[in-house]
Specification:
mainly alpha, Hypothetical protein af1432, about 60% helix
Amino acid sequence: MLKAMNCTEVEQFVKGQVKPKRFLHCISVAETAVYLNSRFNVGLERDDCYKCGLLHDLARNWESGDLLLYTKEHQIALEKEEVYHPFLLHAPVGASLVKSMGYEQYETAIRWHTLGSKDMGRLGLVIYLADYLEPRRAFLTDSQRVSYNKMESLELICLNVLKQMKHHFKDNALSFATSTKTLYDYLKDGGTF
C-alpha cells in the first residue's frame, strides 16, 4: 500500500511506471487539475487533484494483451467500446491499480478519465477535463484553451468539449461510447457535479 506517499514520491513512482513522454503528460494533467480545482472553486484538496492527475495514466504504457488479461483476472466490468479499443483499458486497469495502492478515493475518477461518465464525481470531472485541456495536447490551440477557461463552470466546459468531440466523431463516422453519451445528455439537461 502506497497511500502515505507525498506528491514528490508519487511523481517518482509514476516516473518509474511510464515512458518519459507519458510522464510529462501526467505532470501536466496534475498541474492542470490543480489549476481547474482552484479556478472553479471546486473545493477538492490540492494534493488529491495533483496525485490523481499523476496516477491517471498509470497503465497507459501496458500492452493491449496485458490490459485485457488484467481485466479478466480481476473481473473488471467493461464498456463495449473498451473491448473494441483495448488502449482504453488503461482506465479501468489504472483504477484497479490505484485502489490496490490505497488510493480508492481516486478509483472512479481514473476509471472514467477516458470515456467520461455522469457518475465520475467532481474529481472525475476535473481529471477528465485536465486530461483533455492540458497544455501539451497538440489537438487544442492556445485560443481554444483560453476560450474554455473563460467559461463559467466545469460542466459548461465539459459540455462544450463533448460537443466538439461529437462533431469530430461525426466527421469520422464514429459515435460516442454509452457512458459518454449519457454524460453528454446529463450535462445538456443541466446536470451538475
